Amino acid sequence: MSFRRRTLFWLFLLVFLPAQTAGGSELRLEPETLQALRSSRVADRNPAIEALGRIDGEAATGLLGALLDGALYVDKEDGTLLILSEDGQSRDALSGAGLASPDKTRLRKVGTNNSQREILLSLLSARRLRHPDADARQAAVEALLERGQADKDLLYSLLRDETAPEVRQRLEGALALLRARDPASTPEEILDAVRLLADNAPPNAGQVLENLRKAADPAVAAAAEKALYNLRVSAERASMLETLFFGLSLGSVLVLTSIGLAVTFGVMGVINMAHGELVMLGAYTVWGMQRLLPGQPGAALLLSIPAAFLVSGSIGALLERGIIRHLYGRPLETLLATFGVSLILQQAVRTLISPMNRAVESPAFMSGMLHITRNFSLTSNRIYILCFCLCVFALIYLIMHKTRLGLEVRAVTQNRPIARTMGVNAPAVDTFTFALGSGVAGMAGVALSQLTNVGPNLGQGYIVDSFMVVVFGGVGNLRGTLCGGLILGLANKLLEPASGAMLAKIILLAGVILFMQAKPKGLFPERGRAAEN
Amino acid sequence: MFRKTALLLLFCGLFSGGAAYAAAETIKVGILHSLSGTMAISETTLKDVMLMLVEEQNKKGGLLGKKLEAVVVDPASDWPLFAERARELLTQRKVAAVFGCWTSVSRKSVLPVFEGENGLLFYPVQYEGEESSKNVIYTGAAPNQQAIPAVDYLMKDLGAKRFVLAGTDYVFPRTANKILEAYLLGKGVDKSDIMINYTPFGYSDWQSIIAEIKKFGAAGKKTAIISTINGDANVPFYKELANQGVTASAIPVMAFSVGEEELSGIDTKPLVGHLAAWNYFMSVDTPENAEFIKKWHAFIRDQKRVTNDPMEAHYIGFNLWVKAVEKAKSTAVDEVLKAIVGLSVPNLTGGVATLLPNHHLTKPVLIGEIQADGQFQVVWETPKEVPGDAWSDYLPESKALEADWTDPINCGNYNTVTKKCGGAGK
To answer: Rounded CA gap, B153 and B150, in Å?
Structure first.
């Protein structure tokens, strides 16, 4: 009996001990620290963060990370501290042991404020300086340098063990800056450091170099001058590229919202004031899709592209069959009727869904930046939207120029009676064209849902700009719309830094009006139903 | 023709706000909030909260032995229409008091109507100040009850030395920024450390402005953004901030127009940690607030709806009016106005709101950090209520002005230097 009991005991140890060590050793905290973590007042948390910062080990790091991410909760009844991970798992914050799924109503988040999060971030980055992952090390070094807490010895010891080139470069730059600034450095050391800075200057080197430029040693001054020049040139180049990108991306949004209009207004000659609302419905489709597929914002977004095309396209078809068809050749009445439709659609959304904006999530791949060089990076959502715009444009262009349907559309546009005598079903082509333009508006809405609010007023902000792009580019010409949109976007962003956003818009509008005086048919004039008269 | 008329009638029926006609001998309360157009997003909720307050008062037996009757009109976010609807409420519907308006321009548009017809308006939104009317009770915050304490917090608690004043281009941000700039300069902030930027309504392409702010913030001094950006422009603004890697700890944004209601419609991830200054937060843990939220959820039949600062302002304003009517034993505007100054009603966040002679309230100032669930976590509050100041003490032209609607002064812009009414300081 006693033998069996002993084996059981050993078995027990064998099974449970490894699990225990894997979960990290139990974290022991002072009662005051625990008290401070459990407090409902954020300001009480300071001593606890300080105390945790002094404790080494995985468990303390985990707790600090949880505190930073807002994943640490306290049970209001028994005071247990627990960490809820994103996948819904929960574990005890001190022992690391897994817990059964807790009663959410009993939990209160252990909140932190901005300055506490900053302390947490620097504590954590100090711990991640030797992280196995190079990106994590890079981020940690960056955080360390940004806070100006780096001392020379630490940086040297980091550099000695560092293998990743980009982290090495960052460390070397920072070290050179420290040496250049250090009053104890010999002139040779300073010269050496400044020469290094000329090729590899961290963004905050400007002030130091500015001081060194006035140095007594002409060699140092010259080297500093050169380094400063390099720094300025690379900053200028980056800001120029940035402006260019900003302009293209604003242009791509303009193009997206106006391609649909280029089809309905440009090709068919219908002034559709409800175009903005068709864009809005596309954006609401993303919201609906994300509600259907909770937790998968990326998949929902991709699926929304065809869905929004169908939703807005079918509403466009209905609109054409129900209203616009009866008003062909009467542009003023079309304008008023579609304006009415736009108000009805807006109010319908307000009444049926909500007058308030709806939350549309951005999937992870749509947020953040793409770092090209150290001082030049692009936001990823804008890159995707730029690509999306070009794809949509290519698609519409191909449909209009390479398919039989497109041929019929162009035929009806150019000469309706002759097209009909050739057996083209003109009314069907009208409906199809209008649905196509509307569907593209819906797809633009999908892109806009990632940039702006999804609400009943979404479309109104874009309708005037879209008309401007189509008219500027040349009514009836898709290429004109593409060029027009991109040019207007670029011009806007080039003007903006000097004149401010408000004035840039006004100047641009005045500029387009003047341009239209000189070339009333826009950039690329072409024949179309609207262009004929 | 008949079909068209029928259709027209149908639409009219669908879209007009139906006002209930009750039997005679009721006290009418006008509700002047946009239910359609761009401002419907904010104002519809205020209409609902007013209906709730009226319903509740009726459950308690009404007022002066009569039932209250809410008269709802829709000014459709159209400023001239506000004035028309206000006139309709005052002259045709004979309401005893009006609760309404959101934007400053709508308030300015109805002001002559209320003064001409001697009506009574309760205005529930934080505003730029520099105004005091005999016929308006300002239940929202004046600049010294929101903007000034918020800037103090940025300077003292966060150590901000450089400021970006970003706003939408209209009267509230322009005036608020004028006051803030004067205040910052007075506090020794250098002119080169203040960047002022205005953008149009609904602006959505923030790329170059954020890039500029980033450069402005890279000068080695702690930088903060003070945002009076209004409405729909906020989401793209915060999204772009997050996308360009500007975190709340690097450059915090202090917003004066972002509340729970605005946050409920957006993906809050990019906003977490940024700040807002208000006089009320839904997350404040008091029994009064819990009771109010419970009633609101029951009334609107939706557990997810949030409460916000202007709703509390209407709650305070309505309770003040009820108390004043009971004190005056009449709903006549002049008697109510005489009775209402000096009255106090409880705030939802604890403490009391007292109506000052300048027709503004005493209010606590709270600063909250935005949380991932769209709520605010209070990180700072004033030790006690701050009295609202109609005319800013930081602007040279309004420094000497005071508003006092009690005898003997009875003036909205009394110059304390020349001792004359009429704002000779301008």
So the answer is: 5
Start-end of CATH 3.40.50.2300 domains in chain B: 17-142+289-364, 144-285+367-387
Does the pLDDT value for residue A14 go beyond 50?
no
Type of residue numbered A463: I
Q: Give the whole-angstrom CA distance, residue A145 versus residue A127.
A: 14
Q: Are B147 and B178 in contact (CB under 8 A)?
A: no
List the beta bridge partners of residue A92.
A82
Q: What is the ipTM of this complex?
A: 0.76
* Structural element, H or E, at residue A529: helix A529-532
Sign of the CA dihedral A404, A409, A411, A416?
positive
Q: Which residues of chain A neighbour B243 with C-beta distances below 8 Å?
A: 367-369, 379-382
* pLDDT band, residue B47 (cuts 50/70/90): very high
Q: Could you tell me if A309 lies within 8 Å of chain B, comparing CB atoms? A: no
CA A425 to chain CA centroid, Å, is 45
What is d(CA A93, CA B321) in angstroms, rounded to the nearest whole number?
A: 52
- Which residues lie below 8 Å from residue A73, measured CB to CB, with a gap of 6+? A81, A82, A83, A84, A102, A107, A108, A109, A110
CATH of A237-532, one of 1.10.10, 1.10.3470, 3.90.1150, 1.10.1040: 1.10.3470
Count CB atoms within 10 A of the CB of residue B141.
27
CA distance A363 to A381: 10
Hey, of A113, A343, A377, A508, which one would you mutate to test binding to chain B, going by the most B CBs within 10 A of its CB? Answer: A113
Q: What is the mean pLDDT of residues A13-32?
A: 57
CA-based nearest residue to B226, from B170, B130, B145, B154: B154
Rounded mean pLDDT of B10-28? 55
Task: Determine, for residues A460 and B38 on separate chains, whether the beta-carbon distance falls below 8 Å.
Answer: yes
- Range in A2-11, A195-204, B111-120, B227-236 with the lowest mean pLDDT: A2-11
Alpha helices in B264-369 (DSSP H): 287-300, 309-328, 333-340
Alpha-carbon gap, residue B281 to B379, rounded angstroms: 11
In angstroms, what separates the C-alpha of B253 from chain A's closest C-alpha?
11
Mean pLDDT across chain A = 83
* CATH superfamily ID and name for B144-285+367-387: Response regulator (3.40.50.2300)
**Is the Cβ–Cβ distance between A303 and A374 less than 8 Å?**
no
**Cβ atoms of residues B243 and B271 within 8 Å:** no
